[in-house]
Amino acid sequence: MKYLIGLLAACLFAGSSAASSAAPDTAPDVLVMNVTNEVLEIVRKDKDIQAGNTKKTLELVEAKVLPHFNFQRMTQLSLGREGRQATQEQLKVLSGEFRDLLVRTYSKALTEFRDQEISFKPFKMAATDTDVRVRTEIKQTGGKPVQLDYYLERNAKSWKVYDIEVSGISLVTNYRSSFAQEIRAGGIDGLIRTLQEKNKAADTSSKAK
Amino acid sequence: MAYDMKQTQTAKRLRSAVLLVALAGLLGGCATSGNPKDPIEGFNRAMYGFNEAVDAVVIKPVAQGYDYVLPSPVRTGVTNFFGNIADLFIGVNNLLQGKPDQAVSDLGRVLINSTIGILGLFDVATPAGLEKHEEDFGQTFGRWGVGNGAYVVLPIVGPRTVRDTAGFLLDVTVDPVANVNHVPTRNAMLALRLIDTRADLLPADKVIEEAALDKYTYVRDGYLQRRRSLVYDGNAPREALD
Fold this sequence. Notes:
heterodimer; A: alpha+beta; Nuclear Transport Factor 2, Chain: A; five-stranded antiparallel β-sheet; 7 helices; B: mainly alpha; two-stranded antiparallel ribbon
């Protein structure tokens, strides 16, 4: 019961300020719901973003979505066992480059699917849980809805997303073999170089537009 | 004259496609990385390259034109129409997987959408509470405990596993569209369905392009994860990450 009241209170507060600043006790499902709704609302209203302004979309994702992701954890999970040979310095550079790649991908997905309606599935968790899955669905005309699930972990201050699953495809798992492949070919530095090249190529092509 | 030109163009495109396959084959031959799920990676990469080339010169441009020309209600109607036909064997597969309530729901969908939904052009069953499912014989075999076997990229058809290839052959054998007796009608419908399906995938295309370091690996792993999730109807136990 106490939890319910807490959740209700979180809902009430979340409406205004918590969505962007993420008060420490925002429940994970409320957090996902707020960020999704806020971002989609901006995208639907903003003429520049709809016209394909990549820079503006990236800025929106940077400001509203990024603070709720734990990129270091995502990078470590994508590296898996191969990550043990990486130095702290390499990990830092790597998670920065990986972050840029994911932000661009997320922005692209946001622009492509902005007109779809998103629904949130019922969510249950115990007060002691530190690792949860928040399930959402993208409604599609003429097709089966697409499952979009967020995995969140409780850190000292707040809940952070460490993996996204689209139609049962985990982002982190999907990068595993690609990362391993690059590392086998050119070590951790080889993987960093590949990511840097990919990011640079995308930068120039978006500027040329 | 115009005919001649068209022919040379087709020939040129075909030649470049063949060249690409040959090239991909050469590159693929040495790119086998020893992934246990993908023992014939060299062959698969070559076939993947061939499919990409065919897609780039034929299927994708047609799908883009189709997507551009048709108003979206018409597009939705086409997707619904083929979806309705597919619901029949989705129901059969649900029955074979021991989910009779879902099978009844699928057959209910076919009944409602074929009548009130005017030959399946409108999906009135979903708003009425009968959710659309996604099943095929490959998933049924998976449900029965048949393992994936090796990953295989089939020409034009695309990614499968050995198990899903067997399932796919069965899917095609019973496919109502493939069994239409009037051959020109059948071919037109098969082509329309292919293009409609491809057009639905156009947005995902751009996202994959942005996300993938190596498209082949990305698509392969995505396919394998997706099929696993489907066999478990979206509730697959999470694979250990650490």
